[in-house]
Amino acid sequence: MSSAQRNGDELTDISQTSEFVEGRRADTTPFERELWDVLDEIPDPHIPVSLVEMAMIYDVTENDGHVTVEMSFPCMGCPAYDMIHNDVRSCLTVVDGVDEVDIDVVWDPVWSKDMLTESVRKKIREAGISL
Amino acid sequence: MPSEKQFKQELQNGRMIESTEEMTDGYKKALKQILLVSGDTELMSAPAYYDQSLNAPSLDARASCISVIQDELGHGHIAYRLLEDLGEDREELIYEREPHEFRNTYGFDQHIDNFAELVTAHGMFDRAGIVLLGDIHENTSYAPWKRALTKVSKEEQFHLRHGETWMRRLANNSEKTKQQLQGAVDWMFPIGVEWFGMPDDKKKHDDQLEYRIKGKSNDELRQDWLSRTMPLMNELDLDVPAHYDEDADEYVLEYDFPVAFDAANKEWRFDEPISWSDTIDRWRDRGPANEKYVNLIQSGTLEVEV
């Protein structure tokens, strides 16, 4: 576990629940929702759920073809940092209406296991990974 | 307890085994054998990958390589933990065996000397692991192993992708890195071909298949590996001594399999066919890095006196 994850006490309440990502996802335009759906198809390279299910996607905003993905990683030394960047970029750039993709990696709120929904936890447990 | 023949038939019909009480001695012996090969192969890939992981060309690449090592140690742990259920002692298996007693595949007895060889190992040897364990995950009659492999399969996919990505980068970067990659493939490809063991027509019987501990024969697994490896070789314009034969509808090797290997220079002598018993002797004698790798694993416990 990275030191970032241990700083859970400083987080606001909302970031400690799975509602955080769901809330962000609901508050979007129809096109942005489409982009969320695309990201929800990208598998985490290590864990058998999507990047959205992993609660790594914090926000998606689109402005005149320019897309900004705000995201975080479960740990700062993520072994798939490059790979995930490539996936997000290449899956979004092929969408009609997307001209440019920016990825904004943020560490606030700090990613936490508490952001995972119950159904995602179940999938992860069934894959033999302890939470 | 049913007769051995009946027991094998029940397994072929889909019976799953949960505990040692349900096993015959024959089943237990065959299961232990394959688990030991699997555990030792996973474990020994860690020291084999270690040196060149520290030589990765970027911080991201290094983090990925180190993560691969961590995963492999975890996979080894799963196999040894399952062996413990079958009456083996994990500490003894890892720390108290002599180097030559390890049963890992021959590929992880070789020195990996540059980053091109490391990513080719990820791209070829980890793919061999995926083929073997993917079959077991899908077909095995031993339920605890099947459950444990869900996590392993996903992680091996990550290793493979990492390997392929870097093989592509090296192939397209410069003539020098392309040549390094070709140099790696030259000795590693035939090791991948050997990974799946003796051809089916040389084997009298195969307990692991009869007990449905695995589902596919050696030749089926080898074809599976070739059918996944060859498209990448063709895409990257790498020369390998194999091609797809349309009439036979399978991949065929362009040399008499098996052939002699000069381990010290990592060179195959394609014009020098040898027997399978010579090949098995070569495996049993272990390769040039065997002692170094086993010592690297075992030295940890001595230093901290666990």
Automatic annotation (TrEMBL), chain A:
Region (Disordered): 1-26
Domain of life according to the entry: Archaea
InterPro entries: Fe-S_Maturation_MIP18, FSCA_dom_sf, MIP18-like
Sequence ranges assigned to domain MIP18 family-like in this UniProt record: 33-102
One Pfam family this sequence matches: FeS_assembly_P
Name recorded for this polypeptide: Putative metal-sulfur cluster biosynthetic enzyme
Organism: Natronococcus occultus SP4
Taxonomic lineage from the root: Archaea, Methanobacteriati, Methanobacteriota, Stenosarchaea group, Halobacteria
TrEMBL record, chain B:
InterPro entries: Aromatic_CoA_ox/epox, Ferritin-like, Ferritin-like_SF, PaaA_PaaC
Source superkingdom: Archaea
A GO biological-process term: phenylacetate catabolic process
A Pfam family hit: PaaA_PaaC
Signal peptide limits: none
Cellular component per GO, a single term: cytosol
Name of the featured protein: Phenylacetate-CoA oxygenase, PaaG subunit
